[in-house]
Amino acid sequence: MKGEITLMRLFFGIPVSENVRRSVAASISELGLGRGPFRWVPTENFHFTLKFLGETGQEKLPEIKEAALEVSSEVEGEFTATLDQFGAFPSLSRPRVIFYSLSEGGGSMTRLAGEIDRAMSSLGFRREKRAFHPHLTLARIKKPLSQELLDKLSRVPPLAGENSQEVGSFQLIRSHLSRSGARYEKIAEFAFQPR
Fold this sequence. Notes:
Helix content: 25-40%
Mean pLDDT: 93
Distance between the termini: 48 Å
Number of helices: 4
CATH class: Alpha Beta
CATH superfamily: Cyclic phosphodiesterase
């Protein structure tokens, strides 16, 4: 229909490298937590979220890309992102989301997320109220866990194996939601300036 606006569910993110993805998948499998109340993120969807834009009209894409390109042009060189400690939001004793946090590259990722947030706010997107906490989401938890599972979570060691990747760009990603879960589609990629 003429004049109809196509809405796209968009976010900015950094995909996780194949090697780190394999390490995380092996670690999850060793945890022996099973399915239970966990809604696991499929390994092919692993990413670091920088800014969630939500349902956005397709007509805004050109200005979103232009603003993101400006952000990427001001970032000089790659940085290393290293996953390490296991954690949970709001806490390991009352987990709703479980994740690995960054021991290296967190400051760079936080600054990047802040610049994207600032650039998007100038286009009318709402500024983030919560402080940015760089992490890789592993699973969302649907209901309270048994004490046995809570004890298991409290003993998860830091991520072993390949846990670092170089980050030289970020992406604008479209999320397609369905009953079988989310499918991600890269809309655009924004490379940092070489050193």
